[in-house]
């Protein structure tokens, strides 16, 4: 069996284990709710499930996070030889109570609404960014 077909089998198994139907329409909807980039098409996810193609690394990471599986396992089918433990993100900048409240509200939203909020914030940031500012480079 080739690697694309084996990936498709692992993807289907992960979807089933997470309680989702192994249908392209389900995968398309759930993936696009969680992915910040350009939405993926029905045909593309169908190719993933049929074993015709394997998603790029950024999409694979989103799939793995959503389905609560190791991205290395999802892609290659073998347990990772090592684990990378990341500590919780900590910001050097202290946040105001208003910023903490906004973050708390954002985190309480469903994934679809979080995506809308992110898109609105990105649009504002692009519209009001100063040329050559560090934030502009993050959004490009």
TrEMBL record:
Listed InterPro entries: Cro/C1-type_HTH, Lambda_DNA-bd_dom_sf
SUPFAM superfamilies attached to this UniProt entry: lambda repressor-like DNA-binding domains
UniProt-listed PROSITE patterns: HTH_CROC1
UniProt domain HTH cro/C1-type: residue ranges: 40-74
Any one GO molecular-function label of the UniProt entry: DNA binding
Top-level division of the source organism's lineage: Bacteria
Gene3D superfamilies attached to this UniProt entry: lambda repressor-like DNA-binding domains
The protein's name in its UniProt record: Transcriptional regulator
């Amino acid at each position: 069996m080739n690697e694309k077909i084996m990936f498709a089998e692992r993807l289907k198994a992960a979807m089933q284990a997470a309680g989702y139907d192994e249908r392209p329409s389900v995968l398309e909807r759930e993936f696009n709710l969680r992915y910040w980039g350009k939405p993926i098409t029905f045909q593309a996810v169908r190719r993933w499930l049929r074993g015709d193609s394997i998603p790029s690394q950024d999409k694979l990471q989103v799939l793995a996070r959503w389905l609560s599986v190791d991205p290395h396992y999802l892609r290659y089918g073998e347990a990772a030889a090592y684990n990378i433990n990341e500590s919780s993100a900590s910001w050097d900048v202290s946040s105001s109570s208003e910023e903490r409240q906004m973050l708390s509200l954002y985190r309480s939203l469903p994934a679809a609404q979080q995506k809308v909020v992110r898109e609105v914030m990105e649009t504002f940031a692009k519209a009001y960014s100063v040329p050559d500012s560090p934030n502009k480079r993050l959004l490009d």
